[in-house]
Write a structure and sequence with these properties.
By secondary structure, the protein is of the alpha+beta class. The protein has 13 helices and 12 strands. It has a 10-stranded mixed β-sheet with strand order 2-1-5-4-3-11-12-10-9-7. Strands 6-8 form a two-stranded antiparallel sheet. The longest helix is centred in the middle third of the chain and has 29 residues. The protein is elongated and about 105 Å long. The C terminus is likely disordered.
């Protein structure tokens, strides 16, 4: 219940109470508030509640520690803590499955994952709750352990690839064998031969894709960074996939400004990332549909969004989406999104997604603009009403 409606309701009750009842009622409210305050301060997640003006109206002790929130936060906006956060999008969420990561530097470096929970009742959505998890230790441990796990990953990848290439190789062998028999027989059919050649070509392309993904996962290439126009890379990726897109009955809508900032990147690697995302979007809509691709930017970051109108990603699958060999497709190899995440990370960027079951999925790639620099600001004084923001070079706008 919004605060003004609460006090209106509370005030109407006071008129019907004697002084003893009023004291008892206020005491009960105080106890309930104290209990909830204790619960929220006991949990390990940082909790921040913002109003529809994006001001912080509540935070628990963990959130205060994570962000260094001053005692007086009456004028503090969430954008001062997380630069580039899209508050309008948070209040627009309803039944989304969304996962975001952000890196902050103040009061100390942390990598956080967070979920947004907007208020959803008969009244207008006036408040939203942000729930933060500190994943710094896990994030750093995974990065430092990468080399130690390399040998095991190579073994696992090789075994999986050996299994994956079995089916297309068998199909290719059978089609070529049938084609050879057809040529030697008196009942040679040009149409049948053409069909077998097309099928063989498809299997060769499938083999090429599996091996290509395997090599990217096994031996990630160091990016050859150049100043590039991200729109041109997207268009080249779409052109490469044009026949497959049209053959599946899929249309593509592109939206971007004429003068989008350039970024530093490796064209071939970024093409691979966009190819994987677009291919996933196409396969998510077996009956056809629309893919929307948009490019935008703020003062520090260039964003590329790839959206489909497919079945969406189940909540139980979301956490495993970038794990090797995890796939929800019958013919998938589970390496595509892992490769995308690695390419984006190697460009100093971040990858996130939002998905709604039955409506579709949007992947967002965020790349730092050239010349972005980290600004280290002094800590706030105890009397400061506005806390300095936590600025990093690679904040996700989510």
């Amino acid at each position: 219940m919004p605060r003004n409606k609460f006090f209106t309701k509370f005030g109407s009750k006071l008129d019907a109470m004697d002084s003893g009842s009023i004291n008892s009622y206020i005491h009960l409210l105080s106890q309930e508030y104290g209990f909830m305050e204790s619960v929220l301060n006991a949990i390990r997640e940082g909790i921040i509640v913002i109003n529809n003006s994006y001001n912080i109206v509540y935070h628990n002790d963990i959130a205060k520690e994570i962000f260094g929130i001053p005692d007086d936060f009456s004028r503090l906006r969430i954008s001062a803590l997380i630069r580039g956060i899209d508050c309008e999008e948070i209040f627009a969420l309803e039944n989304h499955t969304a996962y975001h990561e952000v890196e902050i530097l103040y009061p100390r470096r942390r990598v956080l994952s967070f979920y947004a929970v907007p208020r959803n009742d008969s009244d207008e959505k006036e408040f939203a709750t942000l729930i933060f998890n500190d994943i710094t230790e896990t994030y750093d441990r995974l990065n430092s352990a990468a080399e130690n796990e390399r040998a095991q990953l190579i073994t696992t990848l090789a075994a999986e690839v050996a299994h994956e290439i079995g089916n297309p190789l068998n199909s290719l062998y059978l089609n070529l064998q049938l084609l050879l028999k057809s040529i030697d027989s008196d009942r040679f059919s040009q149409d049948d031969a053409k069909e077998m050649i097309v099928e063989s070509k498809s299997e060769v392309e499938r083999l090429d894709s599996i091996i290509h993904q395997f090599l990217h996962a096994l031996r990630p290439t160091k990016p050859d960074m150049q100043t590039i126009d991200i729109k041109g890379v997207v268009l080249e990726s779409l052109t490469f996939m044009r026949h497959e897109i049209e053959g599946r009955g899929v249309t593509v809508n592109c939206l971007w400004k004429d003068h989008l900032p350039k970024i530093r990147g490796d064209v071939s690697l970024l093409k691979q990332a966009f190819y994987n995302l677009i291919k996933n979007a196409v396969q998510a809509m077996p009956q056809g549909g629309t893919i929307s691709i948009s490019c935008s930017a703020d003062e520090r970051t260039v964003f590329v969004d790839v959206s489909d109108c497919g079945q969406g990603i189940r909540q139980e699958d979301a956490k495993r989406l970038f794990s090797p060999f995890f796939t929800t497709k019958s013919n998938g190899n589970g390496l595509g999104l892992m490769v995308v995440e690695r390419i984006v990370r190697d460009h100093g960027g971040r990858l996130s997604f939002e998905s709604t079951i039955g409506e579709g999925t949007r992947f967002r790639l965020a790349f730092p603009r050239p010349g972005s620099r980290i600004r280290v600001l002094p800590p706030p004084s105890e009397k400061s009403a506005i806390s300095p923001g936590n600025l990093t070079e690679n904040n996700d706008k989510e």
